[in-house]
Amino acid sequence: MTSRDKHPMIRQRPLRLLLCLHDQAIVEAVCRSIDIVLPGTETIVAADQEMLARLSREAFDALLVSETVGPPSTLREHLVKVLSYHPGLFVVPLVAPDQPHQIHCVVDLDLPYFLTLPLDPLELNLILQRLQLKIDHLGPRQPHRSTPRNTRQIKGFIGSGPAMTRLFELIHRVAEDDFATVLILGESGTGKELVAKAIHGKSRRHAHNFVPVNCAAIPDDLLESELFGHLKGSFTGASHNKTGRIQYADQGTLFLDEIGDMKPALQAKLLRVLQEKEFEPVGSLKAVPVDTRIVAATHCDLEELVKKGAFREDLYYRLSVVPIQVPPLRDRLEDIPLLLDRFVEAFTTERSREKITFSPEAVTLLLKHEWRGNVRELENLVQHMAILHGGKTIRPQDLPEKFLRHYTPTADPDGMALDRHLFSDEVFLRERAELCAPMPVEERAISLEEGPVDFNDLINEFETELILTAMRFTSGNKKEAARLLCLKRTTLLEKIKKKGLEGRWT
Ligand SMILES: Nc1ncnc2c1ncn2[C@@H]1O[C@H](COP(=O)(O)OP(=O)(O)OP(=O)(O)O)[C@@H](O)[C@H]1O
Fold this sequence. Notes:
The chain is built from 20 helices and 16 strands.
């Protein structure tokens, strides 16, 4: 009879432990003790970069963690994140007594269990026994991640770290005050439009229209009548009265994306709407009252534009009553596993495709990427992978080249070098191109020897061909075409309209 059989209250559920330890000798010592004290335990060893990703995706009973070779703050940073995302997890840091910052970290975070280095086998065994007891009394482990503390989550909006928690809090507060103008700042693809929609959705205006206008995608001469509307005959081509988008946003929210691209004459007219709550359609002298909340967004440095005289200072101050900064994805890498889950679920369900999963090694590489295109880049990657590898687990060698800078093929048990070419970007693009016939984007040799070329004409022509290609490829599905081109749907719609391309892809 074993010692466990003598204690009927102790169940025999095998445990799952995550070890994030930075010395192979310590890993071996811990594994030896586990084999003796907790036989049958599943032990997973992870590098510190993949620790958070694994904890988000899989269920573990405990984490044993020691400090990386990185800066001294790493252990604390990791522990703060782990404790806030997984409050029920049994966390045991391994600390060196001659490293005061490590001891402070345990004390400050009020961690009940820790081990000191060098490891004392008796101390280790004791901790492991406590772990078994605690877990058997607490019942089954929580599947996957738990909801972060103090987060007022917003449906469909992924974000778990402190910066996103603050953002959600701000969205709720701004939504309650229904008049203040909001200026959303952040790099392209960080989710500025999602923030604007969330503010609208949480405000009392939610039953009315949310009207987005991309100021960069509409030609300057059309933007005024798009926004404010016009009277029949007010200019050549104005064959009928037109209602402006601002009117559609009455009682609702007008979202002015890329506000930094708005020309000064129009800025003055917008300022009037903000100050007087009324506007005049083009060609009319009669002011129309309007009750709309204006939410603007930009990836530009508006203060810099003000200094250069390209943006009105008074409008800048009017717009930025409440500035909201959306953090870039590289500053919130902990969200990547959650975003992956969400985008896989959304894309495969919407397109009736087989699901994909990302291997821990692939996730580790994603955590090292710079994400200049932010969340939109991640969303596009998921779609790219789901098209190519539906039903499979994505391994490092399946990822596009740009993710492999930190990858060592020798560490790849499957021999990346052998099948890398099968999954490259070029193959993906070729497959996609073959499906898309006829293919209007031709190979073109541009020679400057024959004289100057018109840069704008060429770019314009290429843009047209690119849009037509995407529209043909998606059989006229604008939403899907916008995805393939990494554009917002509204931007694509504006471009199609501006260039008169409607129907030309058939
Ligand atoms: N936190 C998030 N959770 C879930 N999806 C997100 C999140 N952030 C962004 N997305 C998705 O990423 C894509 C890009 O987001 P969005 O269009 O809001 O970015 P943006 O900052 O307005 O981009 P741009 O500056 O190019 O206009 C959208 O499909 C959006 O739904």
